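> forwarded from #structure-qc
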């Protein structure tokens, strides 16, 4: 079996395909990977990444985070730095949950965030809940409209400055792909900073974290399918995909469980595997007449509006229509599905349980 499926592999040009590096782990890197058992959920995700690359990028991120911390002080917060408490001082446990999303400029999509926040607060009464947004483009656009949003590094620095020493960072990612790893590296840099023995910062797992979560996610998607669906109509979910991450294989796993529940339910991705080309022959073989298209991403954003259901001739809707299928688009992100939000919350609960 071939590992790696970049453009070079697709074109069949083996010479341009980079081999996976397998340098021995440095001593420091090994000791950093072997944490306390309670850190397991976070640790085994890190093991999937290239350790040397992570360490190098962590050093760069440390600089960026240092600047974030300075920034928080500069904008007028008290200089009473909680990370640098007196020696031996036992600090009271102060818990917070930092919810992290890509962000959106669509006001209606913001409603999904409000819904998530109230679901999270319902499960964690009295725990501080804050938001951070990873997309600098979204943050910039909203700043022009007078809405100030923070990236995870700044929000985390501010939480620590405000004395929170038990923090769960929870993102609305579907798999531990490219974006999740970037967030993980940012958080890990905070954990490696001096004074870190005073605090614990854990990253909750993304949505598809177990067979149980995959099956429940499929049930939730079946549930949100319009009641007009007739026997023999197919459902095709558009996942994002993460071409260069091993976790991309979770979409194939999701397909496996989906077919077990409904033989006409499929998942394909825009930027990973499987693709629409993998699903098309199956739709034809099964004599499908109509296909319901639904995004399997937190927000029904750009990919859903353009790549899935846009009018351009290479959108999934256009390709399927051209091949003789009737198409109906359901423009609802998974963050708008309370059952799926409950699965993310389940992962926050699992991370939070390590603080007890
Ligand atoms: Co994308």
């Amino acid at each position: 079996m071939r590992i790696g499926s970049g453009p070079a592999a697709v074109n069949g040009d083996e010479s341009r395909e980079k081999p996976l590096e397998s340098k021995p782990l440095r001593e420091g890197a090994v000791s950093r990977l072997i944490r306390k058992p309670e850190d397991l959920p976070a640790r085994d995700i890190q093991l999937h990444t290239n350790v040397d690359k992570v360490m190098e990028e962590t050093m760069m991120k440390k600089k960026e985070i240092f600047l974030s911390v300075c920034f928080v002080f500069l904008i007028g917060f008290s200089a009473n730095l909680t990370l640098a408490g007196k020696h031996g001082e036992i600090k009271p446990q102060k818990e917070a949950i930092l919810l992290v999303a890509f962000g959106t400029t669509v006001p209606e999509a913001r409603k999904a965030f409000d819904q998530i926040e109230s679901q999270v607060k319902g499960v964690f009464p009295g725990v501080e809940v804050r938001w951070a947004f990873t997309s600098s483009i979204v943050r910039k656009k909203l700043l022009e409209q007078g809405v100030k949003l923070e990236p995870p590094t700044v929000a985390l620095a501010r939480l620590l400055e405000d004395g929170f020493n038990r923090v769960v960072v929870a993102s609305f990612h579907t798999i531990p792909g490219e974006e999740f790893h970037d967030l993980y590296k940012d958080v890990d840099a905070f954990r490696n900073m001096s004074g870190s023995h005073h605090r614990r910062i854990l990253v909750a797992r993304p949505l598809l974290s177990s067979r149980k979560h995959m099956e429940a996610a499929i049930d939730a998607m079946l549930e949100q399918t319009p009641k007009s669906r007739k026997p023999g109509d197919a459902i095709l979910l558009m996942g994002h995909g993460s071409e260069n991450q091993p976790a991309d294989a979770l979409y194939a796993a999701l397909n496996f469980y989906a077919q077990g529940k409904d033989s006409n339910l499929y998942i394909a991705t825009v930027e990973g595997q499987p693709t629409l080309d993998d699903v098309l022959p199956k739709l034809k073989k099964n004599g499908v007449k109509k296909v319901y298209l639904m995004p399997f991403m937190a927000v029904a954003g750009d990919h859903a509006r353009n790549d899935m259901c846009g009018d351009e001739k290479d959108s999934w809707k256009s390709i399927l229509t051209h091949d003789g299928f009737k198409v109906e688009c359901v423009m609802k992100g998974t963050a708008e599905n309370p059952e799926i939000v409950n699965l993310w919350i389940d992962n926050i609960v699992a991370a939070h349980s390590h603080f007890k």
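QC bot note: The first strand starts at residue 95 and ends at 101. The longest helix spans residues 51-74.
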